[in-house]
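Shape matters. As here.
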Amino acid sequence: MLVDISHHNNDQGSIIWSKAVVDAVYIKLTEGTGYSDPKWSDNYEGARGAGKPCGAYHFADLGDPVAEANHFADVYLGRSWQLRPVLDIETAGSTASWLSAFRQQFRTRIGSQAFRVYSSYSLLTGALNPNRWIDPDTDIWVARYNTTLGWDHPQLVLWQNT
């Protein structure tokens, strides 16, 4: 099982990573151009200390995509990550061109092509149609809270159904 976490998961105290029954963790790192999750470093250290592979994600505010990518890269480059970096893009008004500009700048900054996009089923089958931006080094994580996904894509690797 893979989980994604942010400071919201620490509202009742620190996560007891030694008791967490998960295989891997995605940690919210940044949002927009100036916000860094206040618990990301604690969550990273705790998860890594418990032997959990970690990945980082950026929540898109849909401001300047280059500035958002630079902010994510500035924080991302401070640690060693075991999972692909993720762009969490789920806000109304999201576009394929915004996503592409963010991804290009982030890749330039970190020197790696591996990338993952997280979004809702409705955005991915609508405004963010992957055929407008997908490439061989990008895969997809879709959120659809249903008993069946009802959508398939060759680069779909994760389905969040709860």
About this structure: The chain has a mean pLDDT of 95. The beta strands are 2-5, 24-31, 35-36, 54-59, 86-88, 115-120, 138-143, 156-160. The radius of gyration is 15 Å. The CA atoms of residues 7 and 39 lie 5 Å apart.
